[in-house]
TrEMBL record:
The chain crosses the membrane at residues 27-49, 55-73, 107-129, 160-178, 213-230. GO terms for cellular component: plasma membrane. The lineage of its organism: Bacteria, Pseudomonadati, Pseudomonadota, Betaproteobacteria, Burkholderiales. Keywords: Cell membrane, Membrane, Transmembrane, Transmembrane helix. The keyword Transmembrane helix applies. It is found in: Cell membrane. Its main location: membrane. Pfam families: Ni_hydr_CYTB. It comes from Pigmentiphaga litoralis. This is Cytochrome b. GO terms for molecular function: electron transfer activity; heme binding. It is a multi-pass membrane protein. GO terms for biological process: respiratory electron transport chain. Residues 20-191 form the Cytochrome b561 bacterial/Ni-hydrogenase domain. InterPro entries: Cyt_b561_bac/Ni-Hgenase (IPR011577), Di-haem_cyt_TM (IPR016174), Hydrogenase_cytochrome (IPR051542).
Length: 238
């Protein structure tokens, strides 16, 4: 995979391909994957690696903030109004009566919303979590010890739901690759997918430099918000 394929415009894709994911959405996806893996590994290793666990948590929070905003102002396929549907749409998709469109399918939308909710919850509770020894979230000292302890427990309990959801996500990708011959992971890397997988009226997603510039501004603001949160830490001897 070359850098040029990652950064290419929809118009540069083969006529047999359609641009389904913009670059900011793809970067968000893979950075979030890195944060999930990094957070899990560092918390299991423990010790001084807990400092990196906090950094992965801060990055996750920034990514979630970005995706929420991007879900309202990004290209149409990544907007919540485009892919979040009710139970009827999910059932129609499972029955095979709903044709594929760019963006997330109705079942994938459930996974996306669940992932944002679980990881957002995990990142926020982590701000208040503490092990009372080596590591603590920047807001842990701003609440009483009982509440900090409760939030720490809730933070730990969220680990298994996240792991289960990630496992289901990976199994779904494998299923689509084997059963439906759809390379979902490849599309999230290149941004393109075979045009014949979509209905004839499907429009390619916008992936211009204007879109990418807007995403950069949102990302910088999200990073600024997270950085501001970290400055709220009260010195407690850690």
């Amino acid at each position: 995979m070359t850098a040029s394929s990652l950064l290419s415009y929809p118009t540069m894709a083969s006529p047999k391909k359609i641009r389904v994911w913009d670059l900011p959405t793809r970067l968000f996806h893979w950075l979030l994957v890195a944060c999930i893996v990094g957070s899990y590994v560092t918390i299991k290793v423990g010790g001084l690696w807990l400092d990196y666990h906090l950094l992965f948590g801060y990055t996750t929070l920034g990514l979630i903030l970005f995706r929420i905003v991007w879900g309202f102002v990004g290209p149409e396929p990544v907007r919540f109004r485009h892919f979040v549907r009710g139970p009827a749409a999910v059932m129609a998709y499972l029955k095979g009566t709903r044709v594929r469109d760019t963006g997330h399918n109705p079942l994938g939308a459930v996974s996306v919303v669940a992932m944002l909710a679980l990881l957002g919850y995990q990142a926020v509770t982590g701000l208040f979590a503490t092990d009372d020894i080596l590591s603590s979230g920047p807001l842990s000292a701003r609440v009483d010890s009982d509440l900090a302890s409760t939030l720490t427990g809730l933070h730990k309990l969220d680990e298994w739901p996240i792991l289960i959801l990630v496992a289901l996500h990976v199994l779904a990708i494998i299923y689509y690759r084997i059963a439906k011959k759809q390379k979902l992971a490849a599309a999230m890397i290149t941004g393109d997918a075979p045009a014949d997988e979509f209905h004839s009226a499907a429009e390619p997603t916008r992936d211009t430099w204007k879109v990418r510039g807007t995403a950069l501004v949102i990302a910088v603001v999200a990073a600024g918000v997270v950085y501001w949160i970290t400055t709220l830490r009260v010195s407690s001897g850690y």
